[in-house]
């Protein structure tokens, strides 16, 4: 049964925090032949709800509610395509720097836009005539008077209608579907406006039923009937458009001719091969496909802004994703990877049998990315380039906090629930699943009405969009002014599309991804420093078989190396012992969830510990580089081509189809594949089926070699710099991470390992940031806390300073800055006694006697110096409080190269901070942040923070278990207590020489009454007790070279 009216005033969830209505609810309203959407001064959801409603056989009426004259509202709708274009233009221009509003004069271009004016909403009460005159002036016969509530607005509506004989339409304000959802809308409204939830406030914004509207207008049918007439006038449907590229300007050449010329010129310049014929054949094939698919311009556009970036010293990545499989891209400068050298496949990127837009993801140095966007804008026009919008949503953890706040649920309770929601694979567990798994919560909801309401409301609004922001990488370039294609928005003074990434292509635009990659900044900065030592150095011309570089990976010295510096990756690459660049590509592809299970087999096969077997001998050529294991998608394509006779286009479609795992389609694929294998290879059916099943199981974790290869190259470049220009790489890394004290501590230790001294900041020698000084690295002034850029510029412009007094007299610094400069040691070159300098700092507070009287002041002791240094720098620089203990190999065991999972271990550190956390079951536990000479690390303790708080700032010893991803401490004690406690110290012994050396150290300390029992553990034998000792700091230092644990 059809409804008695058309709802013309629906706000969807795209009216951010102003509606509960989701797209999935809209297409269920089949009682209506049409639905009018008027989101709050935006068309964010237009493409989404048009597609949703059309699929549900409901006609969408595209519109929005515009802010008018900064304080009123007017409802506008697209009558036809021209009306849509005009509305896009009007709304796009309405986002000002200070206000978001349209004005009456903006409607001079309102042709083919329908509108509704509501008395008291579109104008003040008493100004109905002026409003009606404006409506008639700008919208002629394309407007109506709206009435939301007959009981309160009928008189004013009738008067406004009479002025120009304008029809009246019933237009209830709809922000939720059912009456029960009004409280969820109220919660959203409170979150938006920072208000508390009021149980006594009631809303009536639900979608009225046909009977309810009939009853309200039982003696006055016209406002309902007029909704149908109004809807009939709005014939516009926002349908998908074929994406169109801007024309790439050329002189006397077509885009095809220009791309061909650039590609062949690049081939001659870049490729020096005996197989030039094969390269030319491949390039000819690619260019033909690119031209047939109409993508010549796309390649030219991407190549243009990449080559501009290179010419303007903005670092660009060597490639990313399947685009690195294109020889054309390599020849025109889009990528720096020769796809034929590494067996990369073009059809994985572009396939005539799979019609989709090409998609080059391009990495840039983050510092230069903005300049690239500015160049694109200058080339194509400010009206043709925009960033892409994205929406942040109300996720489980955050929505609980939001709703808990408006309901005034005690913060501690809300915090406990929010923190107990687990994060799985980077995403918060949904509230529905969380509640299903939490039996205790059901009981708590029964006992506490506020808790029950908090979860009920949170469930209703979870997942709704909360705010709009800018996509990190995507931009669009239009063939025409973008506001003629889609509506635009303003965010942070940037032009942004109102349609999100999922709908950009449907709107007829092509997305270009410009990503920021900090590794490029580090490598570029380090390479520029290297050129000072070697003017001929070129990071893009380094050999890929440099053994010194591969030694860096084999030895696990991967700190600061892109893609390889995580603990697990370091473990893997050390176990593998890479001998070629291809091995590094494989590691990047394997070290991911899924394929990780093949790492042990891969390593054993590489080292000859397991045999390599091939189902068909012909597979050896394809799988030999990966020791018989399917690692890359490209290998699947080649197997299908070589063994089953597929074309590469067919093979790519096979790969995609297998990945989708549709049962009926899989059945057909299996039959076809096995048949073709049997025919081409003269194989038995069982063997062919086995191969299909191998490929099928691989599809769940297949990786694109074309993506792994460029990223392996970036890592290799960093490795090369570390092998040959270590100080240049280290200082560049420190500059980038200057605000990350965890990373700085790691780099400082790495510098020590490399025998590179990290020098304290110095008011006369330091630059703004870290710098190289006579083979050492000098700390930068900007790494000192509370030292701002204006202060730094002042110091640098006025240095050198002859004395402390000279600095105080000339430098313009505040008290806090001065204190941190002293604590950091920045005045040590002028006066080593930091306590004396500290006493003189008060000269700025009118105490001149400190400069005229000789007062003997004792310098700070070492512990105070280190504590102050840590306070000013966030790290220990000159030394660490635990340096004298020299038992820090445990940090290496735990944090850098872990020997095996779930091993019982022990170690020492200085407890810096405790963070309280809640488990999914609501139990409190502690994350403890610890420093040692090797950097910052963390362990988990089941003890509550108040129990562990006595250890903060102290040296501690931890016994615990290594769980691969984290360390769980079973026991935490003060280091002094550990040294003097009863226990066992077990030495792992390799040979007789080691026993002899150990005996020489231990013999003077042997004591039958000692508290520590000595045990020797020979390989494959039970430990032997050899005596007792009492530990001391000095003895611990001597034992550092042995492999032992408590």
UniProtKB/TrEMBL annotation:
Catalytic activity: DNA(n) + a 2'-deoxyribonucleoside 5'-triphosphate = DNA(n+1) + diphosphate
EC number: 2.7.7.7
Pfam families from the UniProt entry: DNA_pol3_alpha (PF07733), DNA_pol3_finger (PF17657), HHH_6 (PF14579), PHP (PF02811)
All copies of domain DNA polymerase III alpha subunit finger, residue ranges: 520-678
GO molecular-function term, one example from the UniProt record: 3'-5' exonuclease activity
Record domain DNA polymerase helix-hairpin-helix motif: where: 755-835
PANTHER family xrefs: DNA POLYMERASE III SUBUNIT ALPHA
Listed name of the protein: DNA polymerase III subunit alpha
Gene: dnaE
């Amino acid at each position: 049964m059809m409804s008695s009216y058309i709802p013309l005033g629906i706000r969807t969830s795209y009216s951010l925090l102003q509606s509960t209505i989701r797209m999935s609810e809209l297409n269920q309203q089949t009682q209506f032949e049409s639905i009018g959407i008027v989101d709050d001064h935006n068309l964010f959801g237009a493409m989404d709800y048009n597609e949703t409603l059309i699929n549900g056989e409901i006609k969408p009426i595209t519109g929005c509610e515009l802010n008018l004259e900064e304080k009123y509202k007017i409802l506008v709708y697209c009558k036809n395509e021209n009306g849509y274009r005009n509305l896009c233009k009007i709304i796009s221009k309405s986002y000002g720097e200070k206000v978001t509003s349209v004005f009456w004069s903006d409607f001079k271009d309102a042709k083919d836009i329908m509108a509704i004016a509501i008395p008291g909403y579109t104008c003040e009460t008493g100004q109905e005539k002026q409003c009606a005159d404006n409506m008639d002036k700008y919208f002629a016969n394309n407007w109506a008077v709206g009435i939301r509530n007959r009981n309160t607005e009928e008189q004013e509506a009738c008067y406004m209608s009479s002025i120009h004989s304008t029809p009246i339409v019933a237009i209830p304000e709809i922000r939720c579907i059912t009456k029960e959802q009004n409280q969820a809308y109220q919660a959203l409204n409170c979150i938006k406006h920072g208000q508390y939830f009021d149980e006594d406030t009631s809303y009536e914004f639900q979608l009225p039923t046909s009977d309810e509207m009939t009853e309200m207008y039982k003696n006055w049918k016209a406002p309902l009937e007029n909704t149908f007439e109004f809807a009939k006038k709005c014939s516009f449907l926002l349908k998908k458009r074929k994406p169109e590229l801007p024309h790439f300007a050329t002189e006397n050449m077509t885009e095809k001719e220009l791309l061909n010329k650039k590609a062949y010129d690049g081939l001659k310049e870049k490729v020096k091969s005996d197989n030039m014929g094969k390269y030319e054949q491949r390039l000819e094939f690619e260019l033909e496909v690119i031209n047939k698919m109409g993508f010549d311009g796309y390649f030219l556009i991407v190549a243009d802004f990449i080559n501009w970036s290179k010419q303007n010293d903005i670092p660009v990545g060597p490639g990313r994703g399947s685009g690195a499989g294109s020889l054309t891209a390599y020849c025109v400068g889009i990528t720096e990877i020769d796809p034929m050298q590494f067996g990369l496949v073009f059809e994985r990127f572009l396939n005539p049998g799979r019609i989709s837009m090409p998609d080059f993801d391009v990495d840039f140095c983050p510092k230069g990315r903005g300049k690239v966007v500015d160049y694109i804008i200058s080339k194509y026009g400010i009206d043709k380039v925009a960033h892409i919008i994205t929406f942040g949503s109300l996720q489980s953890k955050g929505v609980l906090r939001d709703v808990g706040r408006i309901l005034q649920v005690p913060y501690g309770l809300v915090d406990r629930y929010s923190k107990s929601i687990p994060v799985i694979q980077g995403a918060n567990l949904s509230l529905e699943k969380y509640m299903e798994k939490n039996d205790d919560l059901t009981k708590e909801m029964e006992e506490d009405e506020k808790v029950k309401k908090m979860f009920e409301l949170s469930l209703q609004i979870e997942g709704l969009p909360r705010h709009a922001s800018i996509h990190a990488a995507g931009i669009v370039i239009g063939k025409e002014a973008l506001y003629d294609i889609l509506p635009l928005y303003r965010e942070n003074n940037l032009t942004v599309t109102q349609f999100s990434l999922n709908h950009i292509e449907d709107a007829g635009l092509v997305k270009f991804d410009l990503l920021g990659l900090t590794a490029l900044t580090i490598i570029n900065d380090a390479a520029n420093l290297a050129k000072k030592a070697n003017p001929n150095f070129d990071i893009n011309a380094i050999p890929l078989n440099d053994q010194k570089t591969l030694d860096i990976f084999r030895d696990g010295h991967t700190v600061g190396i892109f893609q390889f510096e995580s603990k697990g990756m370091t473990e893997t690459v050390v176990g593998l012992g890479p001998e070629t660049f291809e091995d590094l590509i494989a590691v990047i592809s394997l070290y991911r969830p899924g394929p990780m299970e093949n790492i042990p087999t891969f390593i054993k096969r590489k080292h000859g510990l397991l045999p390599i077997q091939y189902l068909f001998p012909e597979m050896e050529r394809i799988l030999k580089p990966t020791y018989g294991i399917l690692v890359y998608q490209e290998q699947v394509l080649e197997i299908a081509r070589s063994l089953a006779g597929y074309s590469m286009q067919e093979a790519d479609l096979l790969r995609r189809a297998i990945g989708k795992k549709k049962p009926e389609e899989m059945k057909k694929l299996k039959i076809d594949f096995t048949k073709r294998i049997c025919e081409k290879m003269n194989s038995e059916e069982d063997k062919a089926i086995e191969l299909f099943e191998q490929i099928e199981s691989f599809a769940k974790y297949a990786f694109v070699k074309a993506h792994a290869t460029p990223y392996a190259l970036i890592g290799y470049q960093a490795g090369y710099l570390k092998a040959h220009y270590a100080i240049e790489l280290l200082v560049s890394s420190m500059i980038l991470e200057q605000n990350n004290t965890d990373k700085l501590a790691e780099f400082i230790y790495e510098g020590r390992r490399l025998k590179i001294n990290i020098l304290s900041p110095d008011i006369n020698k330091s630059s703004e940031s870290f710098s190289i000084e006579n083979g050492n690295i000098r700390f930068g002034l900007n790494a000192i806390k509370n030292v701002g850029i204006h202060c730094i510029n002042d110091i640098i412009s006025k240095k050198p300073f002859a004395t402390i007094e000279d600095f105080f007299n000339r430098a313009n610094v505040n008290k806090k800055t001065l204190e941190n400069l002293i604590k950091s040691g920045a005045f040590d070159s002028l006066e080593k006694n930091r306590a004396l300098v500290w006493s003189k700092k008060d000269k700025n507070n009118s105490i001149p006697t400190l400069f005229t009287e000789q007062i003997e002041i004792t310098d700070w002791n070492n512990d105070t110096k280190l504590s102050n240094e840590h306070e000013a720098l966030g790290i220990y620089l000159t030394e660490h409080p635990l340096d004298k203990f020299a038992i820090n190999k445990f940090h290496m065991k735990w944090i850098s190269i872990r020997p095996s999972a779930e091993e019982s271990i022990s170690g020492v550190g200085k407890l810096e901070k405790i963070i309280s956390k809640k488990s999914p079951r609501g139990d409190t536990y502690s994350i403890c942040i610890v420093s040692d000479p090797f950097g910052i690390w963390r362990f988990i303790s089941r003890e509550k923070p108040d129990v562990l708080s006595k250890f903060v700032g102290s040296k501690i010893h931890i016994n615990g278990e290594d769980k691969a991803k984290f360390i769980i401490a079973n026991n935490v004690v003060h280091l002094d207590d550990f040294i003097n406690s009863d226990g066992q110290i077990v030495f792992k012994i390799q040979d007789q020489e080691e026993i002899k050396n150990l005996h020489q150290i231990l013999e003077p300390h042997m004591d039958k009454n000692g508290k520590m029992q000595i045990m020797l553990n020979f390989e494959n034998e039970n430990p032997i007790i050899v005596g007792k000792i009492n530990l001391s700091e000095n003895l611990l230092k001597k034992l550092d070279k042995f492999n032992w644990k408590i």
